[in-house]
Write a structure and sequence with these properties.
Length: about 525
């Protein structure tokens, strides 16, 4: 019995190998059968079975087969066009065999789309990516060969419903879709896809906001931000040249002015990490494309009041609203003054903060006490700042003094009583109100202290306070992005070697008692080294 049992095992193994081999080649083979003869239409169920398999290779292969099959059927016009009747009614009704086939394949196409949409939530990126690519191939084929019987002189032949379904899946409330959205970015380069994706995002946001009622949805909000930040909106109509679906006429809806979006996510309550992500792109990717930027006032002012890094990032948007849209923000400079903390020299957005602070303090109409408060606070912070921060703070202070001659009193303020060794600084660092801090009665003794700094560039910059300041302001933009590594590289690249001073006079009475030529020879040798 043992040989028989072994034979059975061998036969079973061979059968399994043959089955695996058949499964690997079945999708393309089934597609060929269906396309060659309508009598093999039921073979589509075999492809669907593989599409729901647990093996990655089977799912990827089945997705490719579905793309080939249904794109070809769309091109051949072999699927029912218009409002499709129920499948049971079609099979039992008075329809021709050709009509029954087209209705059957139309229903299978809808089933395939539903299964591919489910794959977008798959934990394996390779499977989700295959489903996404297949769906977008469906969208392109359906756009060029529409299934809906509409008057295309009034509408665009674009598969809106399919794109909306894809966007709804990408904007999941439970699954982080950032990796899949990055793959989707390739399709956002096409103008029509970008337009309808923005429209779908707006529709999705409206529904979610109505249902959530202010509830924080961190995963959903992150997906919305990731998708919207990948959309680059053109500014000119002439730039609209790339389309997934060919259009026969120019419609007013395609004008660049129409391609604008309101980021409704800003209305939602955002976690701190999302605030930072939104604020980073808000000033250049959102506000320029809004028809009413004033709608962002509440969001930006709320972010500005939070303090820390969020307040620093909110400065960009507030600057645009103040200078271009006449925003009246009470106590703005008081809040800006409070942002000057020791951490400002170490945050990631240091360069952006000092650039904007320089713009806000550029007006010559600011009161002297306010300018003095900023200059004094920066000077006090400079005592513990790194060299890279000092190379920003010192020129910043000098520029403030150049713009406002009334604060030059901070440079040289003699003591009231001669011979007094200790003078109490009237400036109060802990005071939050720049009008009450007493900066105008103080002096910039901190800069004098920095003249003894270990870094030569810092001590040189601090030494400028001893000479009359020239009227021309220094360009601080050159040092805003300077890093410690760059400072070290600059020092290491210096090739000038200073000559070491040596004794140039011959030493007298050297090696007395040594006598003669030996003493003179040693002396000459030493002095020549």
């Amino acid at each position: 019995m043992a040989p028989v049992s072994r034979k059975r095992h061998v036969s079973s193994a061979v059968a399994e190998q043959q089955t695996d081999k058949r499964v690997k080649i079945e999708p393309n083979h089934k597609v060929e059968e269906i396309l060659q003869s309508k009598k093999h239409a039921n073979a589509v169920y075999d492809i669907f079975e593989l599409l729901q398999s647990e093996k990655v290779a089977d799912v990827v292969g089945a997705a490719g087969a579905c793309s080939r099959l249904f794109c070809c059927l769309l091109q051949r016009r072999e699927m029912f066009q218009g409002k499709v009747p129920p499948e049971e009614e079609a099979m039992s009704g008075h329809y021709s065999p050709q009509e029954k086939y087209s209705i059957f394949m139309r229903h299978r196409y809808s089933s395939c789309v539903e299964m591919l949409l489910e794959l977008l939530d798959h934990e394996l990126h390779q499977i989700a990516e295959s489903g996404l690519c297949c769906l977008m191939q469906f969208a392109a084929a359906e756009g060029n060969h529409p299934l809906l019987d509409l008057d295309w002189s009034e509408h665009h032949s674009f598969p809106r419903e399919l794109i909306l379904a894809v966007v709804n899946k990408l904007l999941s409330k439970t699954v982080d879709s950032s990796l899949l959205i990055s793959r989707f970015q390739e399709f956002l380069e096409m103008d029509d896809v970008r337009y309808y994706v923005m429209s779908s995002v707006r529709e999705n946001l409206t529904k979610v906001m109505d249902r959530s009622r202010g509830e924080v949805l961190p995963v959903y909000q992150s997906n919305v931000f990731t998708l919207m930040s990948n959309i680059s909106i053109p500014n000119q109509e002439s730039e609209l040249t790339s389309f997934m679906v060919k259009q026969g006429a120019n419609h007013a809806d395609w004008k660049a002015a129409k391609l604008k979006v309101r980021i409704f996510v800003c209305i939602l309550q955002l976690p701190s990490n999302m605030y930072k992500k939104v604020l980073v792109i808000l000033h250049d990717s959102v506000l320029p494309h809004m028809s009413e930027p004033s709608l962002m006032i509440d969001f930006l002012t709320a972010a500005y009041e939070m303090g820390g890094g969020i307040s620093l990032l909110a400065l960009n948007g507030l600057f645009i609203l103040i200078h271009e849209h006449n925003l009246d923000y009470p106590d703005f400079y008081k809040k800006l003054y409070s942002l000057l903390e020791p951490s400002v020299f170490h945050v990631k957005y240091r360069a952006r903060f000092f650039h904007l602070a320089n713009l806000f303090l550029s007006s010559s109409h600011l009161p002297a006490y306010l300018v003095a408060a900023f200059a004094k606070r920066l000077a006090r912070l400079a005592l513990t700042a790194p060299p890279t921060g000092l190379l920003i703070a010192l020129p910043f202070i000098y520029n403030l003094i150049r713009r406002h001659p009334s604060v030059r009193v901070l440079l040289h303020r003699p003591s009231e009583e001669e011979g007094e060794s200790t003078v109490v600084d009237p400036y109060v660092m802990e005071e939050e109100d720049p009008a009450q801090c007493g900066a105008l009665e103080s002096s910039l003794w901190e800069i004098k202290t920095l003249q003894k700094h270990h870094h030569p560039d810092v001590s040189k910059a601090a030494g400028l306070i001893n000479t009359p300041l020239v009227q021309q302001e220094e360009d601080i933009s050159k040092v805003l992005e300077t890093t410690t590594y760059q400072l070290m590289e600059q020092e290491l690249k210096q090739t000038v070697v200073k000559k070491i001073p040596l004794e140039f006079e011959t030493a007298a009475h050297f090696l007395q008692g040594g006598g003669g030529a030996l003493g003179r020879h040693f002396c000459l040798t030493f002095t020549s080294v």
